[in-house]
Structure formats: structure tokens, C-alpha cells
Task: structure prediction
Amino acid sequence: MTPRFVLGRIGFYTLIAVLLAFFTIPLLWLVTAPFTSDPTYEVRMPDFTWENFRAVLEHPYALPSLWNSLVLSVGTALLVVLMAALAAYALSRVRLPGRDALLYALLLLSSIITGTAAMVPLFQLAVELNLIDSQLGLILILTGGLLPAAIFMLKDFMDSTPKSYEESARVFGASPLQIVRHVVVPLVRPGLATIAVWSIANVWGNFLMPYLLLSDVEKQPAAVITYTLYTEGGQANLRMLSTFGLLYSVPVVLMYLFVSKKYGFRFHGGIKR
Result:
């Protein structure tokens, strides 16, 4: 091995170590700070106190905000999965002129016109439809923002399912809805799980739209309530922030691990070729 090769490998592994430390240290702080009686910005051994969790439980809006996040995330995911599955199935099975161009246009527009870019017209639309301070209105708006990309991703799963299965079911007298429910859905279940987790993760961490459309603090999700966990002097309350941040992160991590173990995350359909 030449000295240049050795130096290159040393530089490569040094860069990897720095990147790992960059991502690992904040996670270590998030895991240890909630169990420390007086947490600071430094990572240190906790003294394993439960007072921080008791303070979060006594907070009037902490736990309700987690429930609000769950309602918004699950409600949006159900709508996205249902509507994206139907649209992707139709686009996969029906030959329409300009179908592929439509899909790429939807994906492109959903990437360019994000929730931030469309903030003003979305707010005006919510005002006109009397959806301000409504969780249902927020779910509908978030669903509309996620649908184009969800349809684009789910169509790949639909394309990889053999049409012969559907034709056999049709021969035995199955209706179109029965074919979708009993034939197509079981085959594309990994795709549906992927879209559901992707939707929940997007809504769970969304701050801007709930902050704009939900003025009632009792309806606000955890992402917005986190913004309020400061002292009267404007300083971050590290005890509350670290503990609430840990509780806020655990559901998404558990959901990801469960779905990944049960279905896996792969971008192809349910039939092995």
C-alpha cells in the first residue's frame, strides 16, 4: 500500500467519524438529558431522576398535544393512503393520453409549490371555507399537499402486480371493488405501509401549517407546543424540552421499527419476479 492510499483511507475514516459524532451527540443528549435533574447543553451521565417526566405530565397541554399530533397524523395518513391507492390503481390500469406526463407534472408541482410557498392562498381558502381552527380542515390541507407524491410512489407498486390475478377474480364474478380489496390491496400492502409511515412522519413533524391554522392551544399538535416550552425570560426550558422531545420522538421511532420489521420498505410490489 502506498502512503497516498493510507492517507486517503485515514482521511475517509476520519470524515466518517466526524459525521457520526455530528449525528450521534444530539441523540445522546436527547436520551440522557430527560433523566438529568439539571440538564445543560452538554452530554453527561444522568442521575436518573423522574422529576422531568412528572413536570411534563403536569403541563396542561403537553400530553393533549401528543394526542392532537396522533389525530392529525393518522387522519391524514388514512386519507392519503385511501385516495392515493385508488388514483394509483386507476392510473396503472387505464391507458390515458398523457398519463405519464400528468404524473411527472403532479410530482414537479408538489415539489415546487410547497406548503410554505402556498401559505397565503391556503390560509385564504381556509378562511373562505370556515376551516380556521379546525383539525379536519388542517387534515384536508395536509392531505392535498402529500397526495401527488404518494400517487407517484404508489403507482410503481400497482404496476408490478400481475393483471392475471385480477382477470381470474373477474372470471369468478368479483366486482371491481372486491378485486381491489381482496386481490390488489394484499399485493401492494408494503407500498401502502410505506406511504402511511411517510405521511405520518411528514405530518408529525409539521410546524408551519398547524401554527397558522390552529389558534386554539388545546387543538395544537406537539410540534407547535414544543415552541412554547420556554421560561418567562425567554430561555429554553431544557428540562421540559428534552423530556418532551424524547416523548415526542418515541412514537415515530416505534412505528418505523414495527412497520419495517413487518412489511419492510421496498419500492416494488408484492410479487417477487
